[in-house]
Structures are given as structure tokens and as C-alpha cells.
Amino acid sequence: MSATIQPFFDPATSTYSYVVADSGTGRCAIIDPVLDYDAAAGRIGYANARSIRDYVREQGLTLEWLLETHLHADHLSASAWLKGELGGRMAIGCNTTQVQRTFAGLLNLGVEFPCDGSQFDHLFSDGERFFIGELEAEALHTPGHTPACMTYRIGDAAFVGDTLFMPDYGTARCDFPGGDARQLYRSIQRLFALPADTRLFMCHDYLSAHREEHEHQTTVARQRQNNVHVHDGVDEESFVSMRQQRDATLHAPALIWPSIQVNMRGGALPEAEANGVRYLRIPLDRM
């Protein structure tokens, strides 16, 4: 069955979020929604989230799922805010607990921070099937960028998170804690084994030097033929060597610390301290 898919683009972080709906039942899912964050001012905003909320309401949809492909390091999640506005269940991959443990240590959050995924309503196991209305969906474990990355196959579409970018831009970095270029290659091969006409929806598009317009959709066939990093014929050792050399030149994402410590809470902000103010931690010399 084919899903109705509405993209939402956040130019500040080059992130695509999606509303995926079953038109027959009016049930929907939201994938990777973005919370606005002004790093210089330390200010949270909701313009992106409101545009998604308003679309869901205008279309008369009922939200069933808020799906995160992974704990993003480049934007804050709006899932918790949207759940408060629209309901639904927040879900992510079960290996998120591994990422929580790693970053809880780096952020010195102490034993009071639960690293059991309880901030989410559901943790998907690999191959787990679920429904959005009458649309059959499957959660696929596609680690490499992080240990917890998931792809959501919904009807004839797959939402790949940061596993792949548009063919002319390539693949995701693997130098975060727990990242693994070899795992990423194998995850991509798993995606390449899907039917050739499967629609692949990107979480980001940063534009290549050869393209001026942002794009969010491609197919398995196009990726296998044209992906500049991992097209058919690129073997695992060659990919791993390329990815490791490329990653060694990259700077840490500008929003990694604010993003991770909000996203590992399911998009919830840290509790206010005694003075009524919420604070984000920025550890020094840890990345």
C-alpha cells in the first residue's frame, strides 16, 4: 500500500521531517520532527513543530506514532512537544539505550538519568512490524552512523535517517561514539536489497556542488547506480577506507551537545533547577 507523504524542511539544520498518512483511515506518523533552537541566545522555538501540528489538524489526521530514526546530533527533536499537542506514541530503536549510556557518561548526568529508553513509549527491535492505520510498517536496524539507527519501511517507502544522503552527496559520517563504517556499509547493502523502485526518503540534504535545489526523495535503484560513495561495485574495504579518511577531516556538529542531551530524553527539555531556569550542559574537551 502507498502512503501519503508530506515533507517539511528546516533550512537551519537542512533536516527533512515527514508526516506519513494512511488516507483510508486518517491515521498518521510523524518522522524526525525538528525543534527550533537559537544556540547563540539559548532559546527554544516551535515554528517547525507548529507547521507540522497545523498540517495534521488541517488534514483531519489522527497521530499514532512519533518515530525517531536515531538520536540526532544536529537538531533537537520536537517529538515530546508534538505528543503534548497531538497525542501518539514516541518510538525509536532499542539500541538507543547504548547511546544513552555513552552520552550520560560524557555529560556526567549521574545515576538519576535512566539509560533504559523509558523516555520513549516504545523501543523497536529489528524487523518488528507495526501499523499506521492500515499501512504495514517495519522497523529495520541500520547501524553505522550510530549504533541505534533505524530505517522505517512504510508501504513502498523507506525513511532512512542519516544512513544515506542523496546520491550526489553520499553517506553519513561514522565517527560518533559507537559509529562504525563497516556496519554502515552492511546496513546500506540491506537497504539496497529492497525492491529497486522502493522510495527512499532522506533525513537531510546538504546539497552537493552540482545541485542548487534541495531534494528529499530518491529510489533504491538510483542509489545503487549513482551514490558517489557506495554505488554497486564498491566493496566493503574500499568504502570503509574512504569513510574513515573522510571522517578524520570533519568537525563535530555545531549542535551535538544540545541535541543529544535533549534527544536522549525523547525531546523533553532538562528539568528546571531551583531558580526555575533550565540548563544544557556543554562538557569541555570531550569530543
Largest sheet, spatial ordering of strands: 1-2-3-6-8-9
SSE arrangement, N to C: EEEEEHEEHEHEEEEEHEEHHH
CATH topology: Metallo-beta-lactamase, Chain A
Distance between the termini: 44 Å
Shape: globular
Low-confidence stretches: none
Beta content: 15-25%
**Rounded mean pLDDT score:** 96
Report the count of strand segments.
15
- Helical fraction equals 10-25%
As for the number of domains, it is 1
**Cα gyration radius (Å):** 18 Å
CATH superfamily: Ribonuclease Z/Hydroxyacylglutathione hydrolase-like
Counted by DSSP, the helix tally is: 7
What is the top-level CATH class?
Alpha Beta
Describe this structure in words.
The chain is of the alpha/beta class. It has a single domain (4-256), classed as Metallo-beta-lactamase, Chain A (4-Layer Sandwich), CATH 3.60.15.10. 24% of the residues lie in helices and 24% in strands. The strands form three sheets. A six-stranded mixed sheet has the order 1-2-3-6-8-9, with helices on one face. A six-stranded mixed sheet has the order 10-11-12-13-14-15. Strands 5-4-7 form a three-stranded antiparallel sheet. Strand 8, helix 3 and strand 9 form a beta-alpha-beta unit. Helix 1 runs parallel beside helix 2. The radius of gyration is 18 Å and the shape is globular.
Q: In short, what is this structure?
A:
This protein has 287 residues and is an alpha/beta fold.
Give keywords.
287 residues, globular
Topology (SSEs and partners):
Elements: E1 4-10, E2 15-22, E3 27-31, E4 34-38, E5 43-45, H1 47-58, E6 62-67, E7 76-77, H2 79-86, E8 89-93, H3 96-106, E9 122-124, E10 128-132, E11 135-141, E12 150-154, E13 157-159, H4 181-192, E14 199-201, E15 217-219, H5 220-226, H6 236-247, H7 256-263
Parallel strand pairs: 3-6, 6-8, 8-9, 13-14
Antiparallel strand pairs: 1-2, 2-3, 4-5, 4-7, 10-11, 11-12, 12-13, 14-15
Helix pairs in contact: 1-2, 4-6
